[in-house]
Amino acid sequence: MAYESAFETFEAAGQDGHARKFSFKRAGFLAAGDEPELYFFDGGARPIVVCISGEALAAWQRAHRYLSREEKIDLAGLFLKGRIEEGGEITAESLRIDGPGLECLIQKLGIPK
Q1: Which of 63, 78, 104, 112 is the most buried (most CB within 10 A)?
Q2: How many helices (H) and strands (E) does the chain have?
Q3: What pLDDT digit, counting tens, does each position of 36-71 carry?
Q4: Cα–Cα distances in Å, from 105 out to 15, 87, 92?
């Protein structure tokens, strides 16, 4: 059975109470540092980029299995939704998923190891 994305498109309400629709647009990677994977979402005025640590992702995949494209989109989408609903500042630094965060999101989504 193929994994179906639940967070490719989603709504999230910030502290102001207004819900906005977000949708995944494209993915890429940065060929520098730990070579993070980048997930671009459109949510209005400007694109929002969620970064998944390349080292954290590689370590998890070596220990378990490779994640599908849809699973990684959902990791990034769920993470972004959580950040928006928390109401914190949305900055490049606050949109990075590291090792412990990655494991937590995988568990929340119920992605099998």
Answers
A1: 78
A2: 3, 5
A3: 999 999 987 789 999 999 999 999 999 999 999 999
A4: 22, 19, 19
What CA–CA distance (Å, rounded) separates 68 from 89?
Answer: 29
Round to whole Å and give the CA distance between 39 and 47: 10
> Would the CA dihedral through 38, 106, 5, 57 be positive or negative?
positive
Please state, in angstroms and rounded to a whole number, the distance separating the CA atoms of residues 101 and 107. 10
**If pLDDT is split at 50, 70 and 90, which confidence band does 2 have?**
confident
Cα(76)–Cα(15) distance, integer angstroms: 20
Instruction: Identify the CA nearest to 66 among candidates 98, 111, 6.
Output: 111
Antiparallel, parallel or unpaired: β 96-97 and 47-52: parallel
User: How far, CA to CA in Å, does 110 sit from each of 18, 24, 93, 113?
Assistant: 28, 20, 26, 9
